[in-house]
Amino acid sequence: AQTVTQSQPEMSVQEAETVTLSCTYDTSESDYYLFWYKQPPSRQMILVIRQEAYKQQNATENRFSVNFQKAAKSFSLKISDSQLGDAAMYFCAYRRAGGSEKLVFGKGTKLTVNP
Amino acid sequence: KAGVTQTPRYLIKTRGQQVTLSCSPISGHRSVSWYQQTPGQGLQFLFEYFSETQRNKGNFPGRFSGRQFSNSRSEMNVSTLELGDSALYLCASSLAPADTQYFGPGTRLTVL
Question: Of A36, B12, B46, B92, which is least packed with CB atoms within 10 Å of its CB?
Fold first, then answer.
């Protein structure tokens, strides 16, 4: 079974600084998708970024970028120029391509942004 | 375009009762998935529906069931509630099963 591990239960960053959240996963599949979701205290889960495993280029969405290392099964999220509104729980998720489309989530990293 | 909506947002029930939660997907989305979120177990997949058919089911007891209607709206039902069923229940929709899932705000269920 696929598993997703987020080894940092909590992280903090100063406003305007850069922070990297770690995620590793375990799978025997070669084709899959990886996601970072953000869940602010209001609880609405928001998609931050998505990466297709067959793409070597790292995905980027404005201040959010990933470092996808397929061989190492690592998928970290970098947040640049951190803002107060970035404070949230961040979940890394895996989904196999085809077949079962369920998302497998990590336990999450709580990010605090200090002014 | 309106996002995923879930009703009710909050629910308090007692042990032994049953509950029905509703999810309306984003317009045009035909796939709906349900997840349970608890502090101890994190986010766990419950089931997925597409075109009124359950395509996949997570490792939950038979007390948890669901269905999808022809307009893609989905409901999940939990019978004979237990204290451990207290959780945030999240619904996610996507255009099709292989597409990115977008989440609703969740229904907070408290079982007393």
Answer: B12
